[in-house]
Amino acid sequence: MAGKITVHPLLYLGACVACLAAGYSLGHRGEPAAAAPGVVAKSGSRGKASGGSWTPADISAAKDEADRKLILKRSIAASDTEALWRWLASMPNVRIEAWGLVQDELIDRLGWGAWERARGMEAGKARDHVGEMLLMKLAEQDPWKALEEWQKHRSEFDHKIWGFGVISECSKAAAGISADQLLKVFASIPQKEANELMFVDYAPDFDFRKVLDHMASGGPQPYTMTEDMLPTWAKRDPEAAAEWLVAHPEYLQVEYQQTEAGETLGTLAKVPMDDATRARVLQMVEGMPEEMIDRTWKNLSSGTSGKLSPDILKSADLMDRRGFYLENVLWETRGLESIDESWSTLPLVERRELLDQADQRWAREGSSPVETKARASWRDMVEKAWGIR
């Protein structure tokens, strides 16, 4: 019998990660693998059922991505701590997912000691990257301690926006508490840094007006900024959000805030409201830039899968966009096997006109034999569904 091949734990881990990154899928191999020397399998559910560790061959033979990820997690759990540190310090060129799994394992074993060890690494690119990634991971568990560590040690790292992910976690956590807490986070962040957009979950009683007033007044700005504050407010209180947006045209001077304002218009058009409130709200925003309104309706008319929204249709009537909305939603039914029941709410004569318009548009845009056949088949499907013939 041939002797065992000695595998260095760092090389073993690297091979496992490399196999995962390559994405091989060759079918499942049932026989258990021998443990690699220097890799100690842990007891419990994290180790392989046979008591040994998983090998790179197991990873390449896994049937799908979920299997490969599970095997990699078990291989990492079976590796000794020093091997994991050496792997991180080597800055391997692999998927970010593999980095995250190794960092999770080190934090699971060492807690905040992992961050202290990263700070003790030799200065350089590896220290900057490993330290930042670990502190970002730890911020998910305790954002306030991570913020304290970031403020205390960020000058030790080279990149000017080092650790921005920590601020993202703090902003998310603060928004879930209150507007006052979020403003405290803003005040602690240097204004010179670049913005990082994100989405957060706001506290049920979050004071949107307070934070937006602060931002519009030029107070200390974050370098991690949400892009859904106004749209979320519009969902909760459409009238108040619309009133604020119209009263602060300066808010549209920043590019990402223009995007947010456009999202807000879309939200106001589709959020459920009584007819009187809808009329008041949409009248408020009718003076917004025409190109922004046009872009909003283009977005509202796409990705519909051919289904009409009663709320959006009411808004389309009030904003003189009914024809545009209906024609573009009908356009999205091309290639579908059936027409949605929501169309039955429209008068048949209007549906006939829309069908003719869409048919003519298709004829203009595609006149090949294949397109002509597809267009005829689609029209036949719609006409049968609507009882036109």
Summarize the structure in words:
The chain is an all-alpha fold and 389 residues long. It is built from 20 helices and 2 strands. It has helices at residues 9-22, 56-61, 65-77, 81-89, 96-110, 113-119, 125-141, 143-153, 164-175, 179-187, 208-216, 229-236, 238-247, 255-270, 275-285, 290-300, 310-318, 322-331, 348-365, 369-386, and strands at residues 196-198, 224-226. The protein is extended, with a radius of gyration of 29 Å.
Principal-axis shape equals extended
Number of helices: 20
Helical content band: 55-70%
As a percent range, the share of strand residues is: under 5%
End-to-end distance: 80 Å
Rounded mean pLDDT is 81
**In angstroms, what is the radius of gyration?**
29 Å
Secondary structure blueprint with pairings:
Elements: H1 9-22, H2 56-61, H3 65-77, H4 81-89, H5 96-110, H6 113-119, H7 125-141, H8 143-153, H9 164-175, H10 179-187, E1 196-198, H11 208-216, E2 224-226, H12 229-236, H13 238-247, H14 255-270, H15 275-285, H16 290-300, H17 310-318, H18 322-331, H19 348-365, H20 369-386
At a glance:
By secondary structure, this protein is mainly alpha-helical. It has helices at residues 9-22, 56-61, 65-77, 81-89, 96-110, 113-119, 125-141, 143-153, 164-175, 179-187, 208-216, 229-236, 238-247, 255-270, 275-285, 290-300, 310-318, 322-331, 348-365, 369-386; strands at 196-198, 224-226.
List the keywords:
389 residues, mainly alpha, two-stranded parallel ribbon, 20 helices, 2 strands, 60% helix, extended, disordered N terminus, signal
